[in-house]
Amino acid sequence: MWVAFAALSVAMTVRPVAIASAADQATHVTNLSFLLKHVCGTVAAAAVLTFVADMAESKGNFRASRMHRAIPVVTILALGTFFFATPQPTEADDLLTDYAEHATILAYGLVWTVYLGAALASATQLCWRWGRRPGSGLVGRGLLLTGVGTAVGLLYAVHRVAALVLQCNDRELFGKRADETASTLLLFAALLLIVLGSTLPVLPRIVRRLHAH
């Protein structure tokens, strides 16, 4: 979870336009902040999935596959390849929409959202499967809450895929401003629920330390 939260911190730090532009100017690579944000998102999704798999493994006979460690590496390599293969003369407000006419950016967006969706779907399935086991206590409740967060994150990924496909056909899902608002709300709701779910199992320890203090 340290890896997940560290990656999310970097991704959310470069999300504001002013910081993203400053980062791009400092590195002299146009729109590099978008690649950094998506790579960090991939790392965070892989870390959350690994965390949930480890929790599930501790509660039963579940054994995680090595594929969930190899696939994010391939995803990151594919994102880098498609990103640098696309000519980007100007800064973009949204890389996936401003350069949607390039097949490489379409592939970039699909790789990113498909991996994110698959990772979150797997995490949701694991959370609900092992969180409902009898006697799981706060760990189980934390898994269920995390599962709600990953399910909301899955909605975020589905929304992004739908918006991207429609934009490639010169259409919009709810309108540009509404799509951005919906995307942001889903993203922040997912992050909040995952944070709460991952910290719930240690709540009694926190309370005991506060009493001791």
Describe this structure in words.
The chain is an all-alpha fold and 213 residues long. It is built from nine helices and no strands. It has helices at residues 2-13, 17-27, 32-59, 67-84, 95-98, 103-131, 137-168, 176-199, 203-212. Helix 3 runs antiparallel to helix 4 (67-84). It is elongated and about 55 Å long. The two termini are 26 Å apart. 36% of the residues are buried. The model has no long low-confidence stretch (mean pLDDT 83).
Summarize the structure in short:
This protein is mostly helical and 213 residues long. The chain is built from nine helices and no strands.
The average pLDDT is 83
What series of H and E elements makes up the topology? HHHHHHHHH
Number of helices: 9
Q: What does the radius of gyration come to?
A: 19 Å
| Main beta sheet strand tally, sense and closure | none
- Mass-distribution shape: elongated
Helix/strand-derived class?
Answer: mainly alpha
Cα distance spanning the termini: 26 Å
Assembly status: single chain
List the helices and strands and how they pair.
Layout: H1 2-13, H2 17-27, H3 32-59, H4 67-84, H5 95-98, H6 103-131, H7 137-168, H8 176-199, H9 203-212
Helix pairs in contact: 1-3, 3-4, 3-6, 4-6, 6-7, 7-8
